[in-house]
Amino acid sequence: MTNQTQSLEEPATTVQPDVDAVVVGAGFTGLYMMHRLRQEGITARGFDAAPDVGGTWYWNRYPGARCDIESMQYSFQFDEDLQQEWRWTERYASQPEILAYMGHVADRYNLRRDFTFDTRIEAATFDEASHTWMVETDGGEKIRTRYFIMGVGCLSAPIRPTFEGEVNYKGEVYQTSLWPKDPVDFTGKRVGIIGTGSSAIQSLPLIAKEAEHVYLYQRTPNFVVPAQNRSLSDEEVALIKSDYKGFRAKAYAGLTAFLFPRHDQSYFDLSPEERRIRLDEQWEIGGLPFLGAFNDILFDEEVNAEVAKYWRSRIDEIVEDPKIADLLTPDEFFGCKRLCAGTNYYETFNRDNVSLIDASNLGIERLTETGLRAEGVDYDLDAIVYATGFDAMTGSVTRIKITGTNGQTIQEKWADGPATYIGLTISGFPNMFNMVSAGSPSVLATMVTCAEQHGDWVADCLVHMRDNGLTLIDARPEAEQSWVDEVNRASQHSLRTRCDSWYVGSNVVGKARVFAPYIGGWPPYVQKCKDVVANGYEGFTLESL
Ligand code: NAP
Predict the structure, then answer these.
(1) What are the DSSP calls for 180-197, one per residue?
(2) Percentage of the chain lying above the pLDDT 90 cut
(3) Contact 266, 294 (CB under 8 A)
(4) Which atom, in ligand 1's list, is nearest to the CA of 196?
């Protein structure tokens, strides 16, 4: 660690930036970026709308919130001491534990010092004459910076549908993605949960344990497999820690940058008996790794249908009422939406105090003074929980008024879908870096690993700029177009593009339908980022004032 604070070397110009970089977001990406900038002696200020570090993990504190990537991998690897000293308690970390970890990282590297909290970035405008950005906060502060670095997350712009009659409703209202800090007590209450994504799937079983009655309003069912979460034993932690570097290196070499039992075998390579044994084994492993049973689940429709049949056979073993099991069965490709990892989700529908409400026809028609009306029926509710998701991948960027060259806004630029060069830069928005977002593996890899790879790439780039007296870097339009073509090409092979989901933006009215993350795999992506640098920042225009 270094405490250097020297500024980037500036050529003679009348307009001088206040800082070298502004970093937006104090989640995994922003924290690591700040750490790297400091190591390089690059001055930076960070901002976050929350009162503390954590990013999406600060806000998503609903009951049952938990990560679906194993904790030993959903954590930083840049410092061996850090990864050796932190002890994860469960296979999949709960939100409080992840937040504690992020707080620990912030303390350990003294990162809060450079962040201003409770402050939202509202606008950023590029000044072509001085090669700087003017960044504006909701508190009215203006900061001139050479580089504008976005670490705003893929799943951090919450959406909540508006229903007629909302103002009349007298009960309590909660949103999973903006959950209050103080515990919520549902004891003795009638609770309505809207949504069946991961957030609802994780919170329903816990809310049902407390509440008098829970109504789950389901517009579209989701595939859920058991998370098979458990405590981590000292032995398994010690085993990984005995060669944490080697473990990380193996993960890094894999398609998703995290390790899980994945069989590089087609469904058709196995006999029917072997297939069943394999599926049973992967079911016991649970969660996202279930998709590792065969290598063609997400590519071959027939295989996908067979896996969905297997899934249904397991659900029939759990759900007592076959009509409810029918209702809970999706009519789409298995794993097309992000596969949900649940704990007691299907079991919860066997409880007397839980009702699954099919809201797929008329839907939720309106809120009333005492509850809501759905599918022609009035429900009295003491509390309504919106688990209605996010304007994913791009929403946290486009909610900021960002204006690049020639007065073009990011909303105009991305009207037909996110266009990026290597998922890190946007042509026409010089000196801006948009990290762990559209156009990179982001949500398909381990976000934390992606945050580190992006942080290193950006830090190295800014050092290159400084060392060469450069003041502007912008992706060339043709380089961006060829990356957009590659992102689209890669997604065409996967069944993941063939259903409505937040991956393609279909959960937001009016949003262009584009598969936003790069699905071509982690190693080719990392190689591309390296090649760009090795070829002298190929695809970029570099200038100095
Ligand atoms: P989501 O998957 O987008 O689910 C939103 C739900 O709200 C959907 O079921 C949607 O129904 C429903 N909905 C939206 N508007 C509605 C309306 N007007 N009426 C009725 N239903 C409505 O959101 P999420 O559950 O927050 O999860 C998003 C992502 O965050 C996950 O896929 C995951 O990547 C991440 N996440 C991860 C974890 C974890 O690590 N385990 C936990 C939580 C979240 P339709 O499907 O019909 O649109």
Answers:
(1) -SSPP--TT-EEEEE--S
(2) 97
(3) yes
(4) 9
3-state secondary structure of 47: strand
Tell me if 240 is assigned to some domain. Answer: no
Full residue range of the structural domain in which residue 128 is found: 19-157+392-543
Give the pTM.
Answer: 0.95
Taking the CA of residue 443 as reference, the ligand 1 atom at the shortest distance is 34
Measuring from each residue's beta carbon to the nearest atom of ligand 1, which residues come in under 6 Å?
66-68, 155, 161, 194-200, 202, 217, 219-220, 338, 341, 359, 363-364, 387-390, 502, 507
pLDDT at 7 exceeding the cut of 70: no
Which residue's CA is the nearest one to ligand 1's atom 29? 198
Average pLDDT over residues 444-464: 97
Give distance in angstroms: CA of 199 to centre of ligand 1.
Answer: 6
Which CATH number covers residue 538?
Answer: 3.50.50.60
Contacts of 230 (CB under 8 A, 6+ apart): 90, 91
DSSP label at residue 226: E
Distance from C-alpha of 314 to C-alpha of 385, rounded to nearest angstrom: 28
Structure tokens at 1: 């660690």
pLDDT in tens, 37-63: 999 999 999 999 999 999 999 999 999
